[in-house]
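Hi R.,

As promised on Friday, here is the backbone we talked about, encoded as C-alpha cells. Could you run it through your design pipeline when you get a chance and send me back a sequence?
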C-alpha cells in the first residue's frame, strides 16, 4: 500500500526523468504526482543535470551525439553542442563553469563544455570509453567509470589531467561517493557487471578494500536482470548516513548504513529498478523502473516506504531533482 507524500517534503520540488526510448524528459511535481512539463526534441536522452542556479537543464543525446541546453522555465532547447562521440552521463562542476560529459564510444574521453560560451573547449583523453561521472563534493576531482576498461578513472579538475585509476575484474557501471564534512572523499562504491553487489574503493590508497554481496531475498525476480548484470543504480543519501543500491533480480532497493555498511532492509519497487537519485534534502529517493513499468518510484528515505509510483515515458533512465526558487 502506497503512503501519502507530505506536502512539506515536496513543496517546490521538481523531478526530472529522461525517457531513453522517447525524445522527452518528464518534469514531475511530486506533491501532485503529475507531469507538469515535458521537454521534447532530444533523441535517446541519457544524462541529465541542472546548473547550480537552476536556470538551465543539460541533457545528452546518444543518437545525436550532442549536449542539449534547455531553458528550465520554458522547457525550450536553446542550443545543441556537438560532442566528440556518443555520450552517456554528465556532471556539472561545483562552481557551475563546466559540464563534464562521458564519451562512451571509443576511444572515449571526458568532454568539457564551458557554460559561459556554451562551447566544447576540451576533451580529456582516456584509455577506453566512459559511462558515469561524479564530481567530488570538494570540487577537486571527477570520478568516472570505464566499462570496457574494467576501471575507474579519477581526473584532477584543476590540471584537467588523469590523476589515477583502479582496475577491477568486471566492467564498471554506476558509482557513488562517501565524503567527509569538508567534502574530501573517503570511499567510492562501484557497481560491477555480473556482480550482485558492489566494490568498495579507498580514495586515499586507490585500492579496492572490500566487495559486498547483496542479500538474496526477496526472491522470484531473478529473470528480470539484464544481460549485463543485476544492479545499475547506487547513491549515498545527501545526509551521508545511508547507501542505496537497486537490483533488478530482487526488484527492490537495498539500504545500508554508513560508515559501517550494515544492511538496514529493502524497499520493493516496480519492474527492473535501475538509476536512482535523491531530493536535495535527502528525504526522498527516486528510482526509475525501466522495462515494463515505465514508472518512477518515490520512496520516503526515513520510513523506507514507497509513497508513490508515477507513470512516465518509455524506458525512464536518469533522474535529478531541483527546488524551485
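Update: got your reply. Pasting your designed sequence below so it's all in one thread:
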Amino acid at each position: 500500500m502506497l503512503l501519502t507524500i507530505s506536502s512539506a517534503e515536496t513543496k517546490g520540488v521538481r523531478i526530472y526523468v529522461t525517457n531513453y526510448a522517447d525524445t522527452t524528459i518528464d518534469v514531475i511535481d511530486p506533491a501532485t504526482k503529475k507531469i507538469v512539463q515535458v521537454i521534447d526534441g532530444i533523441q535517446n536522452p541519457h544524462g541529465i543535470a541542472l546548473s547550480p542556479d537552476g536556470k538551465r537543464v543539460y541533457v545528452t543525446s546518444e543518437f545525436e551525439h550532442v549536449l542539449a541546453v534547455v531553458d528550465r522555465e520554458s522547457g525550450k532547447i536553446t542550443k545543441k553542442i556537438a560532442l566528440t562521440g556518443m555520450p552517456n552521463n554528465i556532471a556539472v562542476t561545483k562552481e557551475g563553469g563546466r559540464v563534464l560529459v562521458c564519451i562512451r564510444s571509443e576511444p572515449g574521453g571526458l568532454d568539457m563544455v564551458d557554460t559561459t560560451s556554451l562551447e566544447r573547449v576540451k576533451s580529456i583523453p582516456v584509455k577506453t570509453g566512459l559511462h558515469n561521472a561524479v564530481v567530488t563534493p570538494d570540487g577537486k576531482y571527477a570520478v568516472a567509470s570505464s566499462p570496457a576498461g574494467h576501471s575507474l578513472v579519477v581526473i584532477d579538475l584543476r590540471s584537467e589531467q588523469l590523476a589515477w585509476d583502479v582496475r577491477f575484474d568486471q566492467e564498471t557501471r554506476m558509482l557513488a561517493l562517501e565524503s567527509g564534512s569538508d567534502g574530501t572523499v573517503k570511499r567510492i562504491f562501484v557497481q560491477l557487471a555480473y556482480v550482485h553487489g558492489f566494490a568498495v574503493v579507498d580514495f586515499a590508497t586507490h585500492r579496492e578494500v572490500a566487495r559486498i554481496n547483496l542479500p538474496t531475498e526477496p526472491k522470484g525476480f531473478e529473470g528480470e536482470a539484464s544481460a549485463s548484470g543485476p544492479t545499475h543504480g547506487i547513491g549515498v543519501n545527501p545526509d551521508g548516513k545511508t547507501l542505496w543500491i537497486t537490483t533488478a533480480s530482487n526488484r527492490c532497493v537495498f539500504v545500508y548504513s554508513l560508515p559501517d555498511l550494515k544492511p538496514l532492509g529493502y524497499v520493493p519497487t516496480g519492474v527492473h529498478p535501475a538509476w536512482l537519485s535523491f531530493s536535495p534534502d535527502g528525504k526522498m529517493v527516486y528510482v526509475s523502473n525501466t522495462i515494463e513499468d515505465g514508472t518512477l518510484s518515490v520512496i520516503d528515505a526515513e520510513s523506507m516506504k514507497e509513497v508513490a509510483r508515477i507513470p512516465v515515458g518509455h524506458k525512464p533512465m536518469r533522474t535529478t531533482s531541483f527546488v524551485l526558487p
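One thing I noticed while checking it: The chain has one helix and 28 strands.

Thanks again,
M.
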